[in-house]
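Re-run requested by the PI after the first attempt was lost when the workstation crashed. Everything re-entered from the original request form. Ligand of interest: nicotinamide-adenine-dinucleotide.
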Amino acid sequence: MKVCIIGTGYVGLVTGAGLAEMGNDIICVDKDQTKITELQQGNVPIYEPGLQDLLEANIREGRIRFTLDLHQAVQASQICMIAVGTPQDEAGSADLSYVLEAAKGIAQAIQKDTGNTYKVIATKSTVPVGTAEKIKAIVAEITDKPFAVVSNPEFLKQGAAVEDFLKPDRVVIGTDDEQASEMMRELYSPFLRTGNPVIFMDVRSAEMTKYVANAFLATKISFINEMANLCEKVGADIGQVRVGIASDSRIGPQFLFPGVGYGGSCFPKDVRALIQTAQSFGFTTDILKQVDAVNNQQREYFLEKILTYFNGDIQGKIFGIWGLSFKARTDDMREAPSVTIIEALLNQGAIVKAFDPKALHTAKTIFKDKIIYAETAYDAIGNADALVLLTEWNEFRRPDFDRVKTLLKTPVIFDGRNQYDAARMASRGFYYMSVGRAPA
Ligand code: NAD
């Protein structure tokens, strides 16, 4: 099928590459000239495992191309997918300006087209309930040519996005238009050969499904973090408690890892946007407000542990940070806990040396010359007063602890992701503070 994707970020690029891999004819559009030029030269501007190879293969086969020309892309396509950003606005709602701008551009292209072919406009961006209706109204005002607006929320996880897109647990399509349903079913059928479902529903329910899924996952994280903090108070070990509850099939093990809170470009903004949606309908989401508050507190709580250890004075102290991205296997630092924690350390006069396997280039745009960028994990901790682990990258799992101990000025580790066995860390001679477990 012929598909154009508007917005070549984490979602748009993965979607484009995944659809091209199944033999579709894909045009990716962005308004960011630098991005498009890079992509046209075969360089992927973001890190996502497997994406570079997938794109290279499909560029070689001529199944995917990149352009700034929205009109040409729309006119050449049967399906137009909107995958632009929906960041948080000042009030906490989703800022729909990019989505609506894209919708307007699509409509103008459809109107200028000499043909009269039916088009499906699908929203992949995470958008509040009612957005498809807004898009429909905008497009209908500009053109009287045939089209349908479909909600097609994306559930991929950064760090495993390619795999998630190629083998989705489910595909959700919100539409009441039969022709659009058939076209979307045809588009996704190669991805669902293992029997995972395409779930058709009404548009509003599809829009809500994405937010409810993210809100539930965020709730699990805030819940386990709150329980972890309580475990510390009562002298229990959240690691053991987690294993104890996870074996209950009603609970399960997934998404119940305590840490420094969730970050990224989705959970924080989507939880807040859902709170705002509820408010605009005169409804209060008490649980979600607490999910957001607990998540913010979790970072503060971790910082307090660091400050308490240093008797409230970290002026001139050196912290070696392991991990900057909001989670492992991505270079994305949007709303990353590392940003809040590093800013707070700097504000109190500390010196920060940081290492991340993939996110150093992102960090440089955020912290500029305020921190020292290390080339290896070990470089980050030379002569440091403490190692602070903030992202669970595989390469931090089994470091050479003798080397770590020799490099640190004092053998102190604050582990925001519970990567190490507390008793073993104590026997190795470290002061080891993690989350939801007694210090060792
Ligand atoms: P992103 O910021 O990485 O990319 C968005 C891209 O859209 C940018 O390259 C930007 O230049 C481009 N853009 C903006 N307006 C445009 C326009 N009018 N025309 C052409 N290009 C335009 O965003 P992302 O992380 O890919 O997220 C996109 C959407 O998908 C968001 O709504 C997000 O909530 C949702 N989502 C994200 C993820 C994720 O893991 N990142 C997962 C599921 C859903």
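Saved to the shared folder this time. The first helix runs from residue 10 to 21.
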